[in-house]
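Morning!

This is the sequence you dropped in the shared folder:
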Amino acid sequence: MSKANISMMTLTVIATAAVVANRCITLAGAYPAAAGLALGVTRSNGAIGDALPVDVLGTAILEAGAAITAGATLMVGADGKVITHDNDGDKHAVGRALEAAAGDGSLLEVLLVPSAGLLVTAV
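The structure's back. Tokens below.
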């Protein structure tokens, strides 16, 4: 697992729920719904009301919700973790895996893809 990332833009979001580092988050400060829109990836844990650094462009380290192969297009799974995109046009892509993840809880480097409300089936 890569321990480095290249953030090209980091924004601050106020947490509206307890959140864990390395997971997708919305502009509203909570985890997105499965297959939903994500603003970016949290860099740190946070409680309600905490200001969180969120990487929105570049690469980021994310927590996997299942095994992922290198090169796979990703979407949000449960609790802000990423899973392999199933190519259903109604689901938002959030990035591409730059390395494999062994399973739930594994960390991997991901090239972020701003979803900006667009539905995409491949990156």
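Headline: The chain has a mean pLDDT of 90.

More detail when I'm at my desk.
O.
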